[in-house]
Design a protein that fits this description.
The protein has 3 domains: about 90 residues, no CATH class; about 45 residues; about 80 residues, Nucleotidyltransferase, domain 5 (2-Layer Sandwich), CATH 3.30.420. About 30% of the residues lie in helices and about 30% in strands. It contains 7 helices and 12 strands. The N and C termini lie far apart (about 65 Å). It comes from Priestia megaterium (strain ATCC 14581 / DSM 32 / CCUG 1817 / JCM 2506 / NBRC 15308 / NCIMB 9376 / NCTC 10342 / NRRL B-14308 / VKM B-512 / Ford 19) (Bacillus megaterium).
Length: about 270
């Protein structure tokens, strides 16, 4: 049974269709604890059927219909006279089980919500990108610790139109800030609010270099790996040009010759000949 890990649940019937399974279940408990005063109650007020969705089974969508009961609270001082029984594997007012929600969160965090909704359909999960967004909005933010080692670089909100600055915590490898702009004043304002920073990894931008020197004069500035290799190759190229000019000219001639070399069919003036 796909929900055999659920405690105190009895399966009454299984309905198999082409693309889904329907499980009719009920609770084995004859009593329930009031969520407000924690008093054990045996008196049933009424019952209704609750429709849920669980993780897919064998590639098919899994639905659960559970008979849910309402109880009277026997504590006269309790403000909640009637309450609905709770289940550990299901949240209050939820139509998806907790383990299905965790699966959807993992998929949505790995990609965009729209792509995750399309992928979920292939996995046998019926959902929308709006539902995935609501699940992500409920996530608790990780605990924030003052950054010590950061990396800073620019990126494009819209190429050739609008740029911003992204700041990464080098210890956790996660972004901690996105700034609306890459000018000196914007970067200085953010850096001054984080005096705990000791090292900053950056590219060859003079704007970032001046901003770091002004806001954090004590911090070490480190060139990132890509720009180190680029500087190394540039230095090697300039050294070869100066030390071996004749060899370098021949190399450049071969490169230009290869760029202008065409296949025989490209030189054909008439298509019939080719």
């Amino acid at each position: 049974m796909p929900f055999s890990s659920f405690t105190n649940i009895e399966c009454l019937r299984v309905i198999q269709e082409d693309q889904s399974y329907m499980y009719l279940v009920k609770s084995k408990h004859s009593s329930c604890i009031c969520p407000s005063c924690h008093t054990l109650s045996h008196r049933i007020h009424s019952q209704y059927v609750r429709s849920l969705q669980d993780v897919p089974a064998y590639g098919k969508t899994t639905y659960i219909k559970i008979q849910t009961r309402k109880f009277f609270c026997d504590d006269c001082s309790c403000p909640q006279a009637i309450f609905t029984e709770r289940f550990t594997w299901l949240g209050t007012y939820q139509r998806k089980t907790k383990r299905l929600q965790e699966m959807l969160k993992s998929i949505a965090l790995s990609t965009s919500c729209k792509v995750a909704s399309r992928l979920s359909k292939h996995l046998g999960i019926v959902t929308s990108h709006h539902t995935l967004l609501r699940l992500l909005h409920k996530l608790k933010l990780p605990s924030y610790e003052p950054p010590v080692h950061i990396g800073i670089d620019d990126f494009a909100f819209k190429k050739r139109c609008r740029y911003g600055t992204i700041i990464i915590n080098q210890e956790t490898r996660r972004p901690i800030a996105i700034l609306n702009g890459r000018d000196k004043e914007t970067v200085v304002k953010w850096l001054e609010q984080h005096p705990t920073i000791q090292t900053v990894t950056r590219d060859g931008s003079f704007t970032y270099a001046k901003a770091i020197s002004q806001a954090l004069p004590h911090a070490y500035q480190i060139t990132d790996r890509w720009h180190i290799l680029k500087g190394l190759f540039t230095a090697i190229r300039e050294t070869l040009q100066q030390s071996f000019p004749s060899i370098w000219r021949k190399t450049e001639y071969k490169k230009s010759y290869n760029r202008t070399t065409y296949y025989p069919q490209d030189r054909c003036s008439t298509p019939s000949v080719c």
